[in-house]
Amino acid sequence: MADYHAPVADIRFALEAQAGLSGLAASWGGEAVDGGLVEALLEEAGRLASGVIAPTNRTGDLEGAVLENGAVRLPAGFAQAYEAYVAGGWNALAFDPAYGGQGLPWTLALAVSEMIEAANMAFGVGALLTKGAIELLQRHGSPEQKALYLPRMIAGTWSGTMNLTEPQAGTDLARLRTKAERAGNGSYRITGQKIFITYGEHELTDNIVHLVLARLPDAPPGVKGISLFIVPKFLPREDGTPGERNDLRAVSLEHKLGIRGSPTCVMAYGDNGGATGFLVGEEHKGLACMFTMMNNARVAVGLQGLAIAERACQGAVDYAGQRIQGQRAGADVTIDRHPDVARTLAWMKARIEALRGLVYWTAACFDHAEKTSGEDKARWMAFFELLTPVVKSWATDGGVAVASEALQLHGGMGFIEETGAAQHYRDARILPIYEGTNGIQAIDLVGRKIARDKGAAAGALFAVIAEDIDAARDNGDGAIADAVAAGLEHLRRATGRVAATMADDPDAVLAVATPYQRLFGTVAGGWQMLRQARGAQGDDSFMAAKRASAAFYMKSEMPLAGALAQMVLPEG
Asked: Which CATH number fits domain 158-284: 2.60.20.10, 3.40.50.300, 2.40.110.20, 2.60.120.10?
């Protein structure tokens, strides 16, 4: 089984050449994106990921999380890895310094998260949800809630969860049955059951802050009647320390295909009269608050797709460089010398680099929106919202595809657990499912993001891509520019057809939402590879490989744009 080596140089390059990290300096301050700071941060995070967290990946898969007498026992090494993670302040990178955060751009924090998730996705997903919970409380919590919860969650001594799903209510949250009743003292009594609650019970932290959707007795029907509550595992005392155990518990753990080291809990609230909850925001408006966490998590899950693809690719490269099969020119050769294997490895690399660029550029949109105002803020946020379902779906589909090809490249040994290729594939398979299935992301893309403004935000993004195409031509990258331009034209026309048809025949659009989403991802990925080629200045082998990878993407992926466009309400 190959070790994981954090790809610090690739990440650093993508941050600058594709995401444009230095462009954030004006709004964030030069210190936040100082080259020396970024380099040191990535190097140190890489050491943590490769040396401390990655060794827990295999043991986590073999041992899994276990529920014993109401407590969850995590696999060997998880507690020590988490202690090192929080001691280094890695949970705090992107959060408000007023509550103990470091105030760095989210883009940079996501780059660190890529390495953590690649090292052990079952470990990293717990921190992912805590960060989403922090983001939600920063935006929607009361001053008192922020003062109580944020410093502890940012420090990592308390963790957070998202409680949406119930046995009868997955995507259709209108069916939600968990109840909330006013207790008369400003708090609420929560009763009901939630399923698929990641890290719903564990002992890594002193407290677990559950964010729970529930319905009040006088709530209007449907999703407009859902409220959001903080339901902590331990009720905080006046000094903020954990006090009495709340009326909630994990009643079972799911037995899963992958990410076995993470506890996926069935949570019961109110076995003894009702768990104490505290309202976030206004009554009956909880789903709008939860969408803050969901959008944060969807981009972060897209990042997981990138991370597992990188981990699987590293294993495939290592195996292909050692496995001797066949001969060339009369000499025994490793399989990476065979043309089809070389093509597969090149495809993996190109897909990963396109994913990395798109994830990071989308995160940078959010960072720009955070520090600007007026029309600029609206423009950046429109780009972020438009690309969120694309990132979630295209990156997670990519993670599964790369992990599958990595397993295939191992041949029969890939089907044997000891190589690790099977675990990467199993772990990756949840990504297109959780935090909103990729089919739901496609519906969100066409039904909300394109339909609500008749494609205006998409058109503005296409103009940005067109500017980069022109700049690439001026820079001598004509072949790459032509390939992206052809893909962009397919996407532009398909978007026009989607926007024009949605009002009159929405079912026709929804039926092709997934191919449209894949078209969008393919072209956006090609755009990012164009940016990669433009940024790969110099004659060293690293830069030459970046340019070659961009050229390969144009040959192997961009031709798909025409076929996908024909699946989306074809012309004529």
From this structure: 2.40.110.20
